[in-house]
């Protein structure tokens, strides 16, 4: 990766990929739109290609941008962990208030980032799959913008959509080692939750699960996990009500050991 790439370029890239709009991405990052635009152009120059296609109604990732996005997400997540580790080695206080500008901190962060870059160059992130389906692609295609995505040890990959006002509805789509899953939390009287249940239905449908299985699982779900299965596929659902908040959790499992289990291509 070119030495011209700065860590803030990665943050701006991920914000723009999620928002698909320069103005919203700049607001999210706390910078002016020209600053974000110039940073994206600098990143494109450093990488030798266009990362976004601009249009009247926003922007979208090019093939190059889409290919690099999961690598940048992994790097960003690793960097945040590095900063927390660096702060913890320096004593009390939050990561934002600790002095990370010292020579010791800069050396630690630089060393760890260099190590992560080397690991990414050698291996890169694996693609989560279920029964031959690309779960990561299904997650990205199902969720409306804006979303926040990340990679961890478990789940392997996840994205979150939060609906205004004040994040009244939260939808998480994930792929873990035991299979793909979804979680939706909303206010009891918010009729918009039906739209996000539709997003969940499309997500599992893209993975080969019949809509009838999903609808039956949701309609019959209660606080005790309920499995609904057909010959080839299965879902487990449960519904929790706490105060005025409702949460649905849905997990895809296999009717036989060879189907719908998440795997990591290495």
Structural notes for this entry:
- By secondary structure, this protein is of the alpha+beta class.
- The chain folds into 2 domains: 7-122, Orthogonal Bundle (Arc Repressor Mutant, subunit A), CATH 1.10.10; 128-264, no CATH class.
- The protein contains 8 helices and 12 strands.
- The strands form 3 sheets. It has a 7-stranded antiparallel sheet. The protein has a 3-stranded antiparallel sheet with strand order 4-3-12.
- Helix 1 (7-19) crosses helix 3.
- The longest helix has 26 residues, at 63-88.
- The protein is elongated and about 55 Å long.
- The two termini are 21 Å apart.
- 29% of the residues are buried.
Please describe the topology of this protein:
Blueprint (H helix, E strand, L loop, with lengths): L6 H13 L2 H8 L3 H15 L4 E4 L2 E4 L1 H26 L14 H20 L5 E3 L2 E2 H8 L5 E3 L6 E7 L5 E8 L2 E9 L5 H14 L4 H10 L5 E4 L3 E10 L2 E10 L7 E3 L2
Antiparallel strand pairs: 1-2, 3-4, 3-12, 5-6, 6-7, 7-8, 8-11, 9-10, 10-11
